[in-house]
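User: We ran a pulldown and think these components assemble together. Before we commit to crystallization trials, I'd like a predicted model of the whole complex to look at. Sequences follow.
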Amino acid sequence: MENNYVPYGRSTRFAPNQTNDDHFRREVYIGVIELVKSLTVNLMR
Amino acid sequence: MCYLFAKEKTKKSAFVEGGWRTWNRNDALDLHVGSVTSAHNAAQERYNLFMTPHGAIDDKIGKVGSEERCLYKIKLTYSLRCLRFLLQQELAFCGHDESEESSNRGIFIELLKWLEANNEEVDKFVLKNAPGNCTLTSPDIQKEIIQCCAMKTRDQIIKEIGDDYFIILADESSDVSHKEQLALCLRYVDKSGRPCEWFLGIVPVDDTTSSSLKEAIQSLLVSHGLNTTQIRGQGYDWASNVKGEIKGLKTLIIKESPSAYYVHCFAHQLQLVLFAVAKDSGDCVCFFDRVSLLLNIVGSSCKRHGMLRHHQYDNVMKALECGILESGSGLNQKMGLPRPGDTRWGSHYKTVVNMIAMCPTIRDVLISLGQDTSSRGDWPKIHTMVGVFESFDFIFNAHLMLDILGHTNELSECLQRKDQDILNAMSLVRLAKSKMQHMTSDGWVSFLQRVIYFATNLAFKFL
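Assistant: Here's a predicted model for the assembly, 508 residues in total across the polymer chains.
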C-alpha cells in the first residue's frame, strides 16, 4: 500500500506521484463517492 | 364579375383593380376578354358554375345513386374494422409485395381476406367482389383512413381538456431517415378526476434551438385549438437548450404562461448524475472504456457468445458438484453481457453485476481465445485485455461501480416508475445519500478486503 501507484496500461506521465493508498482510497474511492453525493444533493433541490 | 370570381394570384387588369380610365381606346374591352384561357374567361366559367349548380361534367358523370352509396359504406366499414384492429395492436399495414399473386399481401389485406373467408356477408362486398376501381384497400386509402382515425382521437382528447389546464411533456429524437422529430404528450385531469396522459402528435423540426422547438410546440397546440396560456406545467429531459434560464424552452414558455412550472424528468436526472460522474472522474472514464473494449472482444460474434455460455455452464456445473453454489429455481440462470447505453444507467449496473459474477468465465474465455490460432488477428487486443482484466485497477473500479450503482439502482428504478410518489422518492434519495456517507466514513476497510478477497480467490497476481 505504501508503494507508489503505477497505473496499469497507461503512462505514468499522466499520473501524479502518489502512493497506492493515496490513489485508491483518497482519489478514486472517496473522490467518486463525494462526487455522487454532491450531485445527488442537487437532485433533492 | 371578373372582380368577384377572379382567382387569387392571377394577374389582375385595370378592370379588376383600380377602375377603368382609358375610355378613349375602343379595343380595350376585347383585350381584356382575350383568348380562351384568359383570366376573364376563367372567371366567366366560374360564374356560370355558380349560377347553375350540378351543371358541371364532373358532377354528371360522378353522380352516385343512394344504392351505390350504401355499398360504399359497407365496404368502408369492413376496411375500417380491419384498420381499427391493426391500429389497436400497433401493427404495420403494408406488406412487401401486395400484388394479386403474392402469397402474403401484407397484414391489412390478409386480415380482410380472413374476414371474407369466414363471413359470407362480408364476402359479397370486399376484395374480389368489389368493383375494381373501388376496393378501398390501396395504401393511399389506408393512409387516409388512418389520418381520419388520428384526427378523431385527437378531437376526443381536445374535447376532454376543453378549457381546462394541462401539462406538456416533450422529447425529441431523430428517426431512421435522420429527421428530427418532436413528440408531444399532454397530461391533464379528466372530468372524473383521474389524471390522464395522452400522446398528441409528432412535429418535424428543422433544428433543435429553443425558439424553433417552442414554435413547433405552439403550432401543434394552436392547430388543435389549444392555447399556450392553458399550460400549467412542462416536463422535458435535461438538455441545455431546454433548461436554460435565459433562452431555454422552459423560460420561453413561462414567459407566455407564468404558471407553467417546470418539472424535470426524475429518472433522467439521476441517470445524468451518474453520467456526469463517469465523465468527470478520469478513472471511471478509463474503466468504462475498458469495459466496452472487453464487450467488443467477447461479444463481437455469436461464436464467442457461445463460448462464453459454454464456459459459464461448465463452471456452474463444477461449482454445483463441489457444493459451492446452491441449486434452486431462478438461481444460476444463464447470463449474458449486455451492452451499456449512456442514457440508461440500469444497463451499466447490469453489465457490471454480470461481469463480476462471470469474472472467472470471462477470464477463461479470454485466455482460450488468446491461444486460439484462428483468431490470431485479434491477439494483440485480447492479450492486452487479459492483462487489463487481471489488473487491480480494473477489479477495484468494477467493485466500486458495483457498490455505487447498486445503491442508486433502487432509487433509479423507483424514479422511473409511472406513479411517482415524491415523498417516497425523497426518502430514497436521503437513504442513498446516507449510504454514501457511511461508505466514505467507515466502508473503506471492508471494501478493500472484499476486493482483495475476490481477487485472491481468482488467483490473480498483483501488488
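The beta strands of chain B are 166-174, 180-189, 195-204, 231-235, 261-262. That may be worth checking against your pulldown data before setting up trials.

User: Thanks, that helps.
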